[in-house]
Amino acid sequence: MQLVRMAIEMTCPAGVLPSEEAVNCLYGPLPVHEGEALAKAIIETVERLTDPRR
Question: Rounded to an integer, what distance in angstroms lies between the CA atom of residue 6 and that of residue 4?
């Protein structure tokens, strides 16, 4: 998951992925929670790229 996080941080718009500490506070400390945050960041990025109003 670290590689996916690094790829998102390098290619996606700023702010779509919370820091690891924020993920622990918002979702929880388990790997599944990190996965949920990563998935939401990918979805947010796609929505920003496909919605001309953003």
Answer: 5
Indicate the DSSP class of residue 48: H
Amino acid of residue 2: Q
The tokens for 43 are: 């979805």
Round to whole Å and give the CA distance between 50 and 48.
6
Cβ contacts of 16 within 8 Å, gap of 6 or more:
8, 40, 41, 44, 45, 48
pLDDT, tens digit, 9 for 90 and up, residues 19-50: 999 999 999 999 999 999 999 999 999 999 99
Residue 5 · residue 17 · CB < 8 Å: yes
